[in-house]
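Discussion board: Methods & Data

I've been asked by a reviewer to show the raw model output for two of the constructs in my manuscript, not just the figures. I'm not sure how much to include, so I'm pasting the format here to get opinions. Each protein appears as its amino acid sequence followed by a line of discrete structure tokens. Is this the kind of thing reviewers expect to see in a supplement, or should I convert it first? Here is construct A:
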Amino acid sequence: MMGRTSLALFAIGVIGAFAAAACAGPPPEFAVVASAGVEGDVPIDVELRQVGPIEQGARPYELVITSLEQPGIWIEDVRWTFSEVVGEEHAIATAGSGCGAEWFPEEQQVFHACTEEYRILETRPGAPLREPIRLYEVVGDMTMTAGTYTFTQRIRWWVIDGDEPFTSRDEADLNDAAITLTFEITER
């Protein structure tokens, strides 16, 4: 049973917590302009667009990759996982298909966990590849902050050989390029 002194201290603590929350105000809202680009000689077109509302602290995006080469290209598996810690309270993180992001305060960094599946991604003219990417507004105790962030993903690709499904590749046929993801984040 709680005594009068304990009850009074409990009430002061609860009132103090509510007062602190009221003074802190709501978390900031952000406007995000997202874009994608290509570096190197790769016959693709890329577009990055938000595809839904914020869910569980993350904005859902879709990276649309369309081959400009007939009959198309294959791309080795990529996961689109990036992070940047900004000061002591802020982090920017992305995660793609099969991945997530989590803040580890002891190491002061974002860790990405991904499934072990290995995929060969395929895109053909008129049949774009759609890769999900999440931009996290909150990762653990870290929150997103305003700024411009560009992440570069190296890719290895090769031209599809006819209409046959993928079976294997010859290392001599592989090409290197990069896809950049840029997020321009401003506070509203």
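Construct B, same format:
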Amino acid sequence: VFRPTSTGSAIVILTSLAASAALAVSAAISSWRRRRLARRMTAEGDQRVEALFHEQANSVTRKDLLEWRTLELQNSLDMLSAKRDELLTEIAAMQSRTSGTGANARTQRDANGAPQDTATPTLVAVPDIDEDKAPKPEQVATDGHPSRGAGTTI
């Protein structure tokens, strides 16, 4: 058992014990802060890596979707072009059959009498009907059904 001989040496001993305890507490707190900071930095780094991964995945997905959509649109364009060509061929065949039947075909003309350059098909002139052979108004039904035209003869 230690017995101090003077009160001054006891104060020095107590002060040094208090200082060493404060140093130990300070070291523990700084170690705790370092570990907490390291965990936080690791978590933030992981979040950044995850965000970059998601951004890259979104970019790849967007690119794949755009490529797929481009191919789909190209296929639609090819299909519509083929259908347009088929319809133009049918129109040309119809025009050649119409001109082959002896119908009187006339082109559209503007106000000056010059032929118009339009994308509309050629108009076909139908001969006038003699008035004595035309149906009388009382002989025409006006039921207004669209599939029968303006009226049908009774």
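Answer (T.O., handling editor elsewhere):
This is acceptable in a supplement if you add a one-line summary per construct. For B, something like: The first helix runs from residue 7 to 100.
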